[in-house]
Specification:
mainly alpha; HRDC-like_sf; DNA-directed RNA polymerase activity; elongated; 121 residues; transcription; DNA-directed RNA polymerase subunit Rpo4; 6 helices; DNA polymerase, domain 1
Length: 121
């Protein structure tokens, strides 16, 4: 990474990454229709299409709701939760297994309740 500088850092959900990669694909099609994305970007786009569990338009709204609902939740944890979309307390315990804070059963139920309208069908 000689000559490159990190300008900004932000946690993205898989759905948000998918939007960025699709935009790059559209731009790449205009420049080089035969190979619009490099190999890594192509694999990343396939991964996002396969594993995204929330609609990209709703990801930021859901992340904000999670961070507003819980004082202890930061953007990193909210992003991780949206990527995994836990369905019960056990799933949430797995997500928080290596974190300093473990949500109570009531908090976990509220997280699942907040996520319910955002799940991709």
């Amino acid at each position: 990474m000689i000559g490159r500088k990190k300008i900004n850092e932000k946690y993205l959900t898989i759905a948000e990454a998918q939007v960025i990669l699709k935009k790059q694909l559209e731009e790449g099609l205009k420049i080089n229709p035969e190979e619009p994305l490099n190999y890594e970007a192509k694999l990343s786009l396939e991964h996002t299409e396969r594993f995204s569990k929330i609609e990209p338009e709703k990801a930021d709204e859901a992340k904000q709701k999670l961070m507003e609902a819980f004082e202890w939740m930061d953007e990193r944890i909210a992003t991780k939760i949206l990527d995994i979309m836990p369905e019960d307390y056990f799933d949430i315990r797995v997500i928080f297994a290596k974190e300093e804070y473990m949500p109570t059963k009531e908090e976990a139920e509220k997280i699942v309740e907040i996520l319910a309208p955002y799940k991709k069908e």
